[in-house]
Design brief:
About 70% of the residues lie in helices and about 0% in strands. The chain contains 10 helices and no strands. It is an all-alpha fold and about 180 residues long.
Length: about 180
Amino acid sequence: MKKYNLYWTPCAAHCIDLMFEDIGKQESVSDLITNARKITNFIYNHDWLLATMKKVCGGDIVHLGATRFTTNYIALASLLKKRADLKKIFISDKWASHKLSQTTVGREVEGLMFNHPYWEVSNLVSIYEALYTVLRIVDSEIVLTMPFVYELIRVMKQKLHALKANEWVKNIIADR
């Protein structure tokens, strides 16, 4: 007997949020999120660095998401988008002469900024983006019909397949 999934609009948003949570629990993803938090916390905890970042990058890194777990996606996507500008800060003479550059945490964050394997988060951001798009639609004020929700999920799965998402991502989605 074939197993069918039933998507109910009011809980579809909650299910997708749980998918975000489950993806964030994976060790490789959790490490990326932890490092992103180190970078953002360091920047936001130091006034000089925060003011410089806003001036160079033209805005904030962290924005509140629709849900608790989508905030991780938004922060990763924003860091990826502002990566070049953030690197400019950490190679500037002002940074080199500032006392923050001499601290242990400052050197660690600077190392993360120039750690090329860390910045290979674009595939993860693409996977998150597919989920986030569906979440924004089902969590909107528009009343969706069940066939439309089924179609959104089907298109999301196709996009994840095209992105060559890891099998564990597909399993998380199938389990929810």
